[in-house]
Specification:
mainly alpha; Growth Hormone, Chain: A; 0% strand; globular
């Protein structure tokens, strides 16, 4: 099999290249035979606890968008510094994921989720008390580090506690619970900030997070045994020692791993840059709304995600035979969304903005659910935590880079009456649109099966 080497700019040009990548992925993966599994009722306790904690993962991911005007005024700073501060969440979250995955495999999900949530609570307190934008960046980074210990252990726990045919559904429900947090991070957070101030709001959030950390350590218990791998075929020779010290290097040598990593980087880099930082200021600029009303429209992105994630997971578990085909459709639709944002933002009315935001959230929810279900189907449980931990930095590295980059583009145009004009956002979102197109990475490899099993 000829090795497929991506173009050097490949990871910065996600959507069209991702279409090619998924076709390559289709040739690298063979169907797996599933086994029936029993389910322990305690799995629902595990799901409830993890979902409650995961609520705040998405809350923090998008909260800066709503309080961005308050932060600019409080710290007397500019968009570039604000983008850097916001991106610290993503850098710390991304860099720790391999460690989180390894610890989830070794010590179990309970300890990782519980102790990392304590770190997130401390980060909330530090952010709320920050005297400068620098200290706010430190608090934001600690929040990112803390909430970074939730998703990968959740994937590990769901693989242990739930049946294989339920995995996509449970993942979709988890992502939906996270986006409930994203909803609270819009108008409700804007209301809290207007009534109590953004600092007091984050101190309250830190207290709630501390309580959830204790609940995790007390109520959550790890599964006693690992669920058997999905495939009935004997493992590949290179996979027979997946629990050994070299398993991480073995995963990194897989071409399938890098295809998935590039897709995650590109798709979510632009999505979280918009939802997590610029959505509310963009709506204010285009529709001439105040922050409270604009944040009310921003709610529609997580609402769409909440509808799209569990619905697509349920359909994938019961109806669709090829998750790759579903992912290809979602990628094409998201490219169209960015074309509208970059080229037609001046023509957006309130109604068209509502439709666009709902569509963006629904597409992202369906894409995330089906992609992680695809990872689960072709990865053995003993290395599922490590594999997920190695993959999970890539959806966060994208916004970590693009948030600062787009902030610098906005600053080149400058603010008018305290807000950035539509022309500034058009320039910034043009970068996101251009990132959807890439050259064909080259010759596709042959049809051999390459699995992380």
């Amino acid at each position: 099999m000829l090795a497929h080497v991506p173009h050097p700019c490949f990871t910065l040009f996600p959507c069209l290249s991702a279409l090619t990548n998924l076709n390559i992925y289709r040739k690298l993966t063979m169907p797996c035979v599933k086994k029936s599994q029993s389910r322990d009722p305690h799995g629902w306790v595990v799901f409830g606890v993890i979902s409650s904690v995961y609520f705040f993962v998405f809350f923090h991911r998008v909260s800066i968008s709503v309080i961005a005007p308050d932060l600019l005024a409080a710290f007397q700073t500019h968009a570039t510094a604000l983008g850097f501060m916001s991106s610290m969440y993503f850098y710390l979250y991304a860099l720790e994921q391999p460690l989180v995955g390894y610890l989830s495999d070794v010590f179990g999900p309970r300890r990782v989720v519980g102790f990392w949530s304590l770190a997130a609570a401390l980060g909330c307190v530090l952010f709320g008390l920050a005297p400068t934008i620098g200290w706010a960046a430190v608090g934001r980074g600690l929040i990112g580090f803390g909430v970074g210990g939730v998703y990968v252990p959740a994937i590990k726990a769901f693989a242990q506690w739930f049946r294989e045919k339920e995995f996509a559904t449970m993942t979709g429900l988890l992502l939906a619970s996270g986006n409930l947090g994203a909803i609270v991070a819009t108008t409700p957070l804007a209301w809290m900030a207007s009534v109590w101030g953004w600092r007091s709001s984050f101190l309250i959030i830190g207290s709630v997070t501390f309580g959830l950390a204790l609940a995790t350590l007390v109520l959550f218990r790890d599964h006693d045994a690992m669920i058997e791998p999905l495939s009935k075929e004997p493992p590949l020779k290179s996979a027979q020692s997946v629990t050994s010290q070299g398993s991480g290097l073995w995963i990194l040598r897989s071409l399938r791993f890098w295809i998935l990593a590039a897709i995650l980087f590109g798709f979510f880099g632009t999505y979280f840059t918009f939802q997590g930082l610029w959505a509310t200021p963009f709506i204010m600029s285009i529709l001439k709304l105040d922050a409270l009303r604009a944040s009310g429209l921003n709610i529609l992105i997580p609402v769409g995600f909440i509808l799209g994630a569990p619905l697509s997971g349920w359909l994938a578990d019961r109806i669709f035979h090829s998750k790759v085909d579903v992912l290809l459709c979602f990628l094409a639709l998201m490219t169209g969304i960015w074309a509208i944002l970059a080229l037609g933002c001046h023509a957006l009315s309130t109604r068209s903005m509502i439709a666009l935001l709902l569509a963006m959230g629904g597409i992202a929810g369906g894409f995330a659910t089906n992609l992680w279900a695809l990872v689960r189907e072709t990865t053995s449980t003993p290395i599922l935590g490590l594999t997920s931990g190695l993959l999970n930095p890539f959806p966060l590295l994208g916004p970590a880079i693009l948030q600062g980059w787009t902030g610098a583009i906005l600053d080149r145009v400058g603010r008018v009456d305290g807000i950035y004009p539509p022309a500034a956002y058009k320039n910034a979102f043009m970068v996101c649109l251009l990132s959807k197109f890439a050259e064909d990475p080259g010759r596709e490899p042959g049809g051999e099966c390459l699995k992380l099993s």
